[in-house]
From TrEMBL:
Topology relative to the membrane: Peripheral membrane protein
Compartment annotation: Mitochondrion inner membrane
Ribosomal protein/NADH dehydrogenase domain sequence ranges: 28-64
Keyword Plastid: no
Disulfide bridges in this chain: 19-53
Organism: Gossypium armourianum
Protein name from the UniProt record: Ribosomal protein/NADH dehydrogenase domain-containing protein
Organism classification: Eukaryota, Viridiplantae, Streptophyta, Embryophyta, Tracheophyta
Protein family according to the UniProt entry: Belongs to the complex I NDUFA2 subunit family.
Keywords per UniProt: Disulfide bond, Electron transport, Membrane, Mitochondrion, Mitochondrion inner membrane, Respiratory chain, Transport
Purpose of the protein: Accessory subunit of the mitochondrial membrane respiratory chain NADH dehydrogenase (Complex I), that is believed not to be involved in catalysis. Complex I functions in the transfer of electrons from NADH to the respiratory chain. The immediate electron acceptor for the enzyme is believed to be ubiquinone.
GO cellular component, one term: mitochondrial inner membrane
Gene3D superfamilies noted in UniProt: Glutaredoxin
Amino acid sequence: MAWRNQLSRNLKELRILFCQTSPASAPARSFVEKNYKDLKTLNPKLPILIRECRGIEPQMWARY
């Protein structure tokens, strides 16, 4: 996906919040497992914060 290496040009920070066990957070956990390594490799200076919190609804925040 070509968008991965463009993130650091437009974003200052990316935050991902999800529950460790909730079925509603399964897509967020899957996204992190599949994409985190490539995102950090292509955008080494972009802060990517991942927070797990029991019972929280999955959220993704982008700070411009």
